[in-house]
Amino acid sequence: MSKLEIRESQPGDLAGIEQIYGDAFPEEDLLPLVRELLDFGPSVLSIVAVDENAIAGHICFTFCQLEESEEMLALLGPLAVTPALHKQGIGSTLVQAGFKHMETSKAGCVFVLGDPNYYDRFGFQAEEKVLPPYPLPDEWHGAWQSIQLCDPEAPHEGKLTVPEPWRKSVLWTS
Ligand SMILES: CC(C)(COP(=O)(O)OP(=O)(O)OC[C@H]1O[C@@H](n2cnc3c(N)ncnc32)[C@H](O)[C@@H]1OP(=O)(O)O)[C@@H](O)C(=O)NCCC(=O)NCCS
Fold first, then answer.
1. What is the number of domains present in the chain?
2. Does the C-beta of 86 come closer than 6 Å to ligand 1?
3. Is 8 left (phi over 0), alpha (psi -120 to 50) or beta?
4. Are 108 and 72 within 8 A, CB to CB?
5. Is this structure's pTM higher than 0.85?
6. Which of 5, 69, 70, 126 is the least crowded, having the fewest Cβ atoms under 10 Å away?
7. Which segments of the chain are extended strands (E)?
8. For the segment 145-162, what is each residue's pLDDT rounded down to a tens digit?
9. Domain enclosing residue 118, as ranges
């Protein structure tokens, strides 16, 4: 792998990003969500890792809030790395790059629905007080996680309100 370039995605990256999700999630069709997020505008931060002019990884962060709160929060996902380049630190680099952006965007807390065995390395912990937008299947309980990136204005409690691309129960239940 040559030196990785990390930058916000551009419209010309779409085909490369789509390729990664097809390869990394062969049994899950995340493309409709990814396309909607990329079209959604400034509420979504989309970052790519580029290796030798090819998209090697992609991550999205969607800015959101708790019901009845103005505090800026973020939802991480999806994240994918091209399978041939797994275990070379690309996923971690993308997560950390996103965290840096969160500091400038003043999003103090990031939520994720994902495998805790992967996300605990970044400091994510099971989230008990903030509910996901849709009830999760029992077996996914520990997959709903959060990380506090800076001091909270107030303790987080309530239900996460997400924008349109994430308002599909199927994204949270299967
Ligand atoms: C998860 C994913 C993004 C990690 O990308 P990556 O570039 O390989 O990640 P990194 O190199 O930063 O970290 C690799 C480490 O994570 C581990 N890892 C990856 N997925 C894991 C999982 N689901 N559970 C536990 N560990 C996992 C690898 O075994 C490796 O461990 P090591 O450091 O001990 O060798 C990538 O494997 C991927 O695209 N997977 C398919 C899509 C997916 O599951 N995305 C969402 C994650 S919940």
1. 1
2. yes
3. beta
4. yes
5. yes
6. 70
7. 5-8, 44-51, 54-66, 73-81, 109-113, 125-126, 130-131, 144-148, 158-161
8. 999 998 665 678 899 999
9. 5-173
CA of 154 to the centre of ligand 1 (A): 32
Ligand 1 site, residue 77, Cβ cutoff 6 A: no
132: amino acid identity, one letter: P
Q: Using one digit for the tens of pLDDT, what is the confidence trace for 63-121?
A: 999 988 888 999 999 999 999 999 999 999 999 999 999 988 889 899 999 999 999 99
CATH assignment of the domain containing 96:
3.40.630.30
User: What is the CA(91)–ligand 1 centre distance, in A?
Assistant: 7
What region, left, alpha or beta, does residue 157 occupy, with left being phi > 0 and alpha being psi -120 to 50 degrees? beta
* Alpha carbon nearest to ligand 1 atom 19, residue: 118
Strands 73-81 and 109-113: parallel
